[in-house]
Amino acid sequence: MYCARSSLTTTGWGWHLSDDKILQADLDAMAKIGPHLRESARQIRGRIPADHVTPGADPGLAALEAFSKAISDVERIAAARLEAISDVYDEAHRGFLTTEQLHAGYYKLPSIYQPPQRT
Q1: pTM
Q2: What DSSP designation does 7 have?
Q3: How far out from the chain centre does Cα 38 lie?
């Protein structure tokens, strides 16, 4: 949880903000980014065309459709990643934050190398 300490400390190198103030500033910035990430994810999902397969299509057209599907899959992964990052920011801002919990949450984020989940 957030614990107020002195906002400035002095070292041999000069004045520095305390870790708590830096963490709070980071969390405040993350809270502002979250809605933008969610909106970007929504826009990406809105651009993804519906999957369709044309039976007996020309091989060139079939290859183009497969390529288009691959691009859609990458867009789905990117949208899911943006939302997952936003969720981690939201949880961090609510104060769940310990180093161990942050690492655990980070490693649960979907990887770009995992197959996309169809919606």
Answers
A1: 0.49
A2: S
A3: 9
Angle between helices 19-47 and 59-94 (to 10 degrees): 150
Burial of 87 (0-12, 13-18, 19+ CB in 10 A): middle
Query: Which residue stretches of the chain are H helix?
Result: 19-47, 59-94, 99-107
**Alpha carbon 68 to its chain's center:** 23
Distance from C-alpha of 9 to C-alpha of 19, rounded to nearest angstrom: 10
- φ, ψ dihedrals at 61, nearest 5°: -65, -40
Give me the tens of pLDDT residue by residue for the chain, a chain 119 residues long: 333 333 444 445 555 556 677 777 777 777 788 888 889 888 988 887 776 666 776 878 878 888 888 888 888 888 988 888 888 877 777 765 566 766 777 777 766 555 656 65
The ranges assigned to domains in the chain are 8-107
| CA gap 104, 109 in Å, rounded | 9
